[in-house]
Every structure is written in C-alpha cells, then in structure tokens.
Amino acid sequence: MQPLITRRRSRRRPVSGRVFTYLAMLAVIAVLVGGFLEVGRQSGRYDNSAYRSLAAQASAVADASNATATEVRSIMAVMQSNDRRTLQADLDSVVQQASDQATGAGMLATPRTPRNLGGQLAEVFAARARAVSQLRSALDGLLGMHPLPVAGGSHSGSTDAAAPTLLTFMQATNRITAAGQLLARSDQEYEGVRHDLAGSAAHAKIPSSVWITNAAVWQIGSVATQVDLVASSTSLSATHRLVLRTVRLTPQALPAVNGTVPPNVSVLSPTSKVEVSVVLANLGTVDEPHASVTFALTRQTTGKTVLQTRTTSLAAAGSLTLPGVIFTVKPGHTYQLTVSVVLPSNEPSGVGSTLTKLLQIAPAT
C-alpha cells in the first residue's frame, strides 16, 4: 500500500494538467473573439464609409433629376400650346438629361454597397430615363415628329434615319400612361433606398426625389384628355412649305450693262450646256420624305420642252442642295427656264415655290 503523501500527489497531477488545458482554450477563444470583434469594427467602419460616399454621389444625381422632373411636369402642362419644333426641342432636352443622369447613377452600383443600395438607386434613375424616352416616342408617334438633328451632324437635312413610327390616339395614350406608372414605381423605390440609408449606422441622408407630384395627371383619363388637346392643337398641326432658297446657273449670267437686260432675263456666254442647281428648304412643320423639284427648259423658237426632276427627303426646318441638272443648249438661242417645287395636292402654291427666267445664250464668235 502506497503512502498517503504519494497518493495525494498522484491525484494532483491530472488536475493540474486539466487546468492548464482549460486556460489554453480560454486564451485561444479570447484571441478569436477579439479578432472577430476587430473584423466587425473594421467592417462597420467600411460600411459606414460606403454609405456616406453613396449618399454624396446620389445626392448630386437626385438634385439633377429633380430639375428634370420639373421640366417634364411643365411640358405635360402646356404642350398643346407649343409649336412642333419647340415641343420637340423640349422633349429632346429632358430625354438627354435623364439619360445623362442614368449614366452617372450607373457608377453608384460599383463598388457594390451593403444591401446593394447603389444598384437599386442606379435602377431608379435608369427607369426614369426609360419613362421619359417613352413619353417622347409616344408624342412623336402621335404627331409624326422625330428628335431634332444634332448640331453639326452630317445629315441635318435628311429624314432617312429619323422617320417616326406613327401611333394612334389610343396607342399614344397607353404609352404615356405606362410611362407615368414607371415613374411612380421609381419614386417608391427611391424612397425605400432613402429610408434604408437614413436608418443605417452611418445615418446617411439623400434629398427627396419625387417625379409624380399629382398622380391624377398620369391616369389614363387625364392622359387621354391631354392627348386629345395635343392632337387637335392648331399650333402643333402639320403644315407643308417647300421653297427654293437659291437657283444657280453654270456658266453664270453675264453682268447687265446700264440696265439693258430685264430682271427676268439672264444672258449667258456662248455655251452648249447649262447646269442648274438649287438649294431647297423645308419651312413646314413636318418632314418631306419625297420632296421634288421639276426643271423645264423650253426653246422659244420651237416650243420644245425638256423636263427633268430631282427628288429627295428633307426634314422639317432643313435645307440641302439638290444634284445639278444639265441641259443642252445652242448659242444664239433663247430658252425659258422654269423651276418648280412639287407640292402636296392639298397645299396651295406659295411664295418661293416657282422661278421662271429667260436664258439668252450669246452667239458664238
């Protein structure tokens, strides 16, 4: 049998080993907990910084969006009183503004913010841009308009790339109503993000941004009434007016001496060919996809007439030079030149649509 002192020591050794193990485990847990807490503090600081950065960028876009919203409400209120070109310019302006805002807001989605609030804001402004573009296409389709050419563009007078898709009264009404619904949803989504940012630990704030301040204006009944006013507006009605800006002869007419040549007579140097070129202008309110000009040259001694036609597409408020027309002539003879714009059947002839001139070809020497 072991002595009492030996048995006590043997019992203490296992107890001491367990205590050491427990203490080591507690130290490891403390280190892990401390690490987790530090990561949490670092993450919290990053999230707060991300929220504040997002709020600063979003506020600038929201302020610009609010200004565009004011313009859209103004357009909706008075569009039936505008002329076609003013209305088109106003629509083009707000579409461009909303598009620029959507592009700027697209950068809010990267880097990804907590709960993807930046991505949600980006979609809000993208939806507003789609709605404004839908509003413009509806009114353009109703009135037969299209976006104005960009200043300095190479095809400012042509209508080839800008022909509008025509819409019925009901189609235009439905599209504008749908645009209003899209704007209303964007308002709700924006307010949700605004609430989430304010409730975050960073208490980030962005300004209010509301496009639909009067929901009744965008209801289908009110929209139908507005579309009817637009469709029946005299200032927005389509008018046709093509005029001859200039008519040039090659060779050029000889200068008159002491007023011996009547105003409607041009004396040309001896030649066998005369080229006639014109600048055609569209002073009407609609595009002319088939604008035509006829050139007639009649020999005075025989009455023989040669006809040629030039046809082009010409946008409203546009002008362009038509390809030249060449006539064969004989020196020493007189010809009557008539240049006429071919007008739509229901449009009366106006000032500047026809030019008549006698051409005296000088005898060959």
How many domains comprise the coordinates? Answer: 2
Work out the radius of gyration: 39 Å
Poorly predicted segments: 28-44
Following the backbone from N to C, one meets helices and strands in this order, namely HHHHHEEEEEEEEE
Number of strands: 9
Q: What percentage of residues falls in helices of 4 or more residues?
A: 40-55%
Mean pLDDT: 85
Q: Would you mind describing this structure in some detail?
A:
- The structure is a single chain.
- This protein has 365 residues and is of the alpha+beta class.
- It folds into 2 domains: 29-232, no CATH class; 242-361, Sandwich (Immunoglobulin-like).
- 46% of the residues lie in helices and 19% in strands.
- It has helices spanning 4-78, 84-106, 117-143, 169-199, 220-232; strands spanning 242-250, 265-268, 273-282, 288-299, 305-314, 319-321, 325-328, 334-342, 354-361.
- The strands form 2 sheets. It has a 5-stranded mixed beta sheet, with no helix packed on it. Strands 1, 3, 6 and 7 form a 4-stranded antiparallel beta sheet that branches.
- A hairpin with a 5-residue loop joins β4 (288-299) and β5 (305-314).
- α4 crosses α5 (220-232).
- Residues 28-44 have low confidence and may be disordered.
Keywords:
365 residues, alpha+beta, Immunoglobulin-like, 2 domains, 4-stranded antiparallel sheet
